[in-house]
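Case study 2.
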Amino acid sequence: MESFFLYAAVFVVAILYSSVGHGGASGYLAVLALASFPKETAVTSALCLNILVSSIAFLTFQKAGYFRWGLIWPFLLGSVPAAYVGSISKISSPAYSIFLALALCLAALRMWMDFPRKISGEIYFRPHLVVAFAVGAVIGWISGAVGIGGGVFLSPLLLVLGWADVKQTSAASACFILFNSFVALGGHLSQVSDVVILDWIPLVTAAFMGGWLGSQMGAGYFSHLALRRVLGVVLWIAGLKLVYSAF
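Prediction:
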């Protein structure tokens, strides 16, 4: 019965995260942390699922015509090497809990945000190359250290600062998450001799089905804001629990 709830939670997380172009690593980590799984098992499993779901989300949003390579590559230039450095960095358990709690709270914020669709003729400004590189590097290091892809940090910036519309942000975030998750997974695997990744078939099935369904809805016109806000509350609770446990 506990396994059923775990797989169901992964399915729901994959649906709601992929609908906004995210892979769901912070959500998977929250689920696994609440289920008391060991850190490295949770991180490697979450990153593997992150790669799967962000790949589906990226292909879906890219096929729908929302992906802009010119928007995301400066961020990737800074984030990819920083994500690897972060993944091999040694951070204390309290620091890890705080970073993950921050990621969960930002993910919750993104789930609550409801931006209007792009208005015809509206212009979005691209960030300066140096700014994008620096932002990418900071996000990459934190993401690599925690074991996520970084979309929860990047997408609010793209939206709030007017660098992209909602759909472009989802497409860019999915690409950003995919690259960072690959290098972060390699770094984490290089630091441990024996990592147990959770049962693959049911987890992958749940994540694949949720990722496909959520990205299809996100690339279309289905908002399901109420469901996203319910997940946001859950993520806030998980984040507060981590902060409490850190002290």
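The longest helix spans residues 39-63.
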